[in-house]
Amino acid sequence: MRTQSSRKNAVRVNPQVTNPSNHHGTRLIPLVLQREGHPDEIFYTPECGACGRPILDLRAANVSTVDEMEDDLIPVGRLGDAAALQIPSAGAYAFHKDCDETGRSPWVTAHCVFQTDQRREFEKRGVA
Predict the structure, then answer these.
(1) Is 9 contained in some domain?
(2) Which H or E run includes 112?
C-alpha cells in the first residue's frame, strides 16, 4: 500500500511524543476481551501518542510520522525483495484521528497496520 508523503510540509509536534527519553515507540496496551460463551481473549491495542488512551477503533486512527526531516533516507536492510529505507524522523506513532494534527505525513489508517481480530485460526473456529 502506498501512502502520500509530503516531505516538504512543516510539522507541528506534540512534545509528549517526540521526547525520546519519555516515549520510545508506540506502546501497546494489553486488554482482555470477554465474549459470552467464549474464553477470555488477550487483545493488544495501540496507545494514542497524543492523549494516551487506548485506540479501540483502528479505522478511526492513524499511524503518522512525527518530526519528519529533509535528510536522506537511511538504509536499514531488506524486507523480502525490497530495500528498506528509514524515513528520518522522531518515529511513527498511532493517534486517534481526532488527536492527530493535520500536516503529519506520511500516514496510513491504523487498521492497515494493526489487526482488528488477533485470534489465531483455531481460536476463530472455536477450538480453543
Answers:
(1) no
(2) helix 110-113
| Domain around 75 | 15-124
8 lies in some domain: no
**Do the strands 107-109 and 61-66 form a parallel or antiparallel pair, or are they unpaired?**
antiparallel
If one counts every other C-beta atom within 10 angstroms of the C-beta of residue 95, the result is 27
Q: Is the dihedral of CA 77, 11, 109, 61 positive or negative?
A: positive
**pLDDT (tens digit per residue) in 47-68:** 999 999 999 999 999 999 988 8
- 31 close to 55: Cβ distance less than 8 angstroms: no
- Indicate the Cα dihedral angle 2, 48, 22, 6, nearest 10°: 30
